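Re: NAP structure - here you go.
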Amino acid sequence: MSEAQGLKNQGRPVALVTGASRGLGAAIARKLAREGYFVLLNFASNEAKAKELQEAIIKDGGHAELCGFDVSKSEAVAERFDWIAKNFGGIQVLVNNAGITIDSLLMRLKDADLEKTLDIDLKGAIYCTREATKQMMRARSGSVIQISSVVGEMGNAGQSAYAAAKAGLIGFSKSIAKELASRKVRVNVVTPGFIETDMTGALTEAQKEAILRSIPLGFLGAADDVANVVSFLASDQSRYITGQVIGVNGGMYM
Ligand SMILES: NC(=O)c1ccc[n+]([C@@H]2O[C@H](COP(=O)([O-])OP(=O)(O)OC[C@H]3O[C@@H](n4cnc5c(N)ncnc54)[C@H](OP(=O)(O)O)[C@@H]3O)[C@@H](O)[C@H]2O)c1
């Protein structure tokens, strides 16, 4: 038996999608599974949803396994990546998608909400990238895709903590794209605009109408619009692309 046959992925490339239980992460995981990746489905608390997705992927002929952990806990992240190395031989693609937003005007922003947002949206992505790229550097290949936001590029009143985290992700990614390029590890950022998921489901009709007026293409995006770009950035078709920020926003920010 070859070494690859002894591993759970049986030679298939491995992709970890954080926050895969819902929304964009679930669509990205489904798309990568269709492209032939063995997909590790991360979630924080929603194990039932992640399990449903795993079953749907398997029914579709794909391969996936649950991989729950809190991205904001650095020790839990390191333990999980050790588990990945032992059971799957290493990771080829990391999609840092897990994220939250706690909206507040700056004058009312609570320390705890600021910390939670930075811990999950920025530090969580940094912890996962640090562990994943150790494995990718050894393999001399890999692709990291950060899911930032148009809000990190253009700002949004009431979302300063979220914007700080999402803009931070851009500076972080450009820096490590430079650090890792010589090892053929690529790092890119996707900045979605308004996409229909649970996160935007909380908007009122009036808010949605105002947003639609600011989108030149005139409609909210679908999760698959983001998943298609992530799949391209994961693949060799984008082998000459690193350190880039790619907007998927209907023209909202140019
Ligand atoms: N929707 C949009 O319009 C939009 C626009 C721009 C950017 N984005 C970004 O795209 C990403 C996904 O957004 P979404 O709309 O799909 O969000 P969502 O529907 O609210 O889903 C968030 C996902 O993140 C997971 N998560 C939250 N905290 C976590 C933690 N500490 N550790 C691990 N996983 C955690 C959740 O897991 P559980 O289910 O277990 O809680 C869930 O799977 C986010 O980073 C968001 O900022 C979204």
